TrEMBL record:
InterPro entries: bL21-like (IPR028909), bL21-like_sf (IPR036164). The lineage of its organism: Eukaryota, Metazoa, Ecdysozoa, Arthropoda, Hexapoda. It comes from the Eukaryota. GO terms for cellular component: mitochondrial large ribosomal subunit. One of its GO terms (molecular function) is structural constituent of ribosome. This is Large ribosomal subunit protein bL21m. Belongs to the bacterial ribosomal protein bL21 family.
Length: 200
């Protein structure tokens, strides 16, 4: 290749390459490097700020007053609640029928109080993870205890002449949600007297 190029052109080319290597910076930044992308899309840190605990965690008084006023005047509309029954969460409203699968001790006609409330169009009371006891009362009545429809459990091992068919039914308990009541004073729920009638 050197023989094909004229001597003048070859000497100029070698001078340019040597000058460019000598003047080149030691570190070069690439446009597609991880470091440059991180700098490009990084956000600025928020300045350090001391926050008063009462202001940070407390609700504004006007919000609590509005909620208490709606509950006192019964203007909150149709309430819903997310309750935990037998380890499962259910979203319920008044006059709903809730099906609990598996064995459950309450008998027909018994009225029970669902205390494990996990969560109206106007406001929401959110527990972390449960709402305080006494703040929301969900009353339900056991209306029926029966068995589910017949379910089939079929097992087969190919090329082994092994087939098994089993039929089974699951006990079910039907609950009617009678009412969902919220304490009139949201910020100060009533104290719980005892846990005698609680079913966990």
């Amino acid at each position: 290749m050197a023989k094909l190029l004229p001597g003048l052109l070859l000497s100029n080319f070698s001078k340019l390459s040597l000058n460019s290597l000598q003047n080149a910076p030691k570190f070069t930044a690439c446009a597609n490097s991880i470091l440059s992308r991180a700098e490009k899309y990084s956000t600025q840190h928020t300045p350090y700020e001391i926050v008063n605990d009462d202001q940070d965690y407390g609700l504004p008084n006007d919000t609590i007053e509005k909620v208490n006023h709606q509950i006192a005047e019964k203007q909150q509309g149709r309430l819903f609640a997310v309750v935990q029954v037998c380890g499962k969460q259910h979203k319920i409203t008044q006059r709903d029928v809730l099906i609990v699968e598996g064995y459950w001790p309450p008998e027909c006609g018994e009225k029970i109080l669902l205390n494990k409330v996990l969560g109206a169009a106007e406001f929401s009371l959110i527990g972390r993870p449960l709402v305080q006891q006494g703040l929301v009362n969900v009353e339900a009545t056991v209306i029926e205890k029966t068995l589910s429809h017949t379910k089939t459990h079929f097992r087969k091992k190919r090329r082994k002449q092994y087939m098994r068919t089993k039929f089974f039914k699951i006990p079910q308990t039907f609950l009617r949600i009678n009412s969902i009541k919220v304490s009139p004073d949201v910020n100060n729920p009533p104290e719980v007297q005892g846990l005698d009638n609680v079913i966990f």
